Amino acid sequence: MATGIRNPKWSRDELILALDLYLHYQQKLPAKTSEEISNLSKLLIKLGHQLGRTIGDKYRNPNGVYMKLQNFKRCDPTYANAGKTGLSHGGSHEETIWQEFCVDRRTLRLAATAIRSKIEANE
Question: What is the pTM of this model?
């Protein structure tokens, strides 16, 4: 793995996968060291390889995946209604993906399943 390389912005497909995980565990997100976070990290790294991206040590690692889930908290009204805030330095794309899918979780689940299948099939 390369070091000192700046990670690219998260793609739409990556954000869909992250939001799917976030909403699945919305009430209590998995820990940074959980199997769920680790599995998503591995899947995103595999996607990065398939896309020909330069993969550094921090590329979509569990810490980065966990932080991305924390970014979604700032979009989540149930979190805000509890008087809490998420990480404030996320990108605008999280908000776009949130607005598109938060009310249509079935479509989100279908999209995430299709993306996972394509990655696993190396397509």
Answer: 0.89
